[in-house]
Design a protein that fits this description.
This protein is mainly alpha-helical and 253 residues long. It has one domain. 79% of the residues lie in helices and 0% in strands. It has 10 helices and no strands.
Amino acid sequence: MINYFAIFTIVKFRIREFTKEYHYSILAPLTSNLLFVIIFSTIDRFYSLSNENISFVQFLIPGLIIMVVAQESFDNPSVSIINSKQIGSFDDFLIAPLSRVEIFVAYLISQIFIGLVLGCLNFLILSYFISYNYFSIFNFLYYLLLIIVFFTSIGSLVGFLTYRWDTQSTVSNFFISPINFLSGTFFSINALPDEFKYILLYNPYYYVITYFRNSFYIKSEINFYINSIILIFVFTTFLLTSYIFYRGYRVIK
């Protein structure tokens, strides 16, 4: 039987923790995005980085929103779980009358709320720098939700399997950051030589960023094949993390 009260308690605790540390969880990524926008908008005036019939800043802002939500969705659960393991509070979750999968679900639900708040807040602030005639709130929230589920699953998995900060930093520096920077956040696929385009054409994350960006400016047709691949990719990651939580591999040192 699912322990809804325990899940709600963990969710409430993590949301309260997120709001208390607003200077780190909200203001820091928002400030970083504002600096990116200010710097690149200044550069664009002198070097004309504009492409695809929109200014470079308009192209950049959706990617920045995705990037900050993805990074926070990885960092928040991984840091929280590792920290709770080190101070011993994670043992309280293990001896409570709830399963390890329910712990993961609680982290996921809380991170969905956190990620959506962070994404919407960045959108409201950064929309000051762009203008658009079309905006799809459904596509905006849908692809943002996919990003949150995917990176929260990875972050929870890393936090669950390790006890050391250097492992978390290694995954963040050598996987999370590269996949964010090299998946079309700062550049269009048209800027790449033909022999390198296949790197993005076979990258599901690139299509998530592309469709998310289109939700700001273009009423594009839904490619059911690509979206099915994206859903399978995200759902597989979710199932893998759920299974490892269920098995409890290395959860007790």
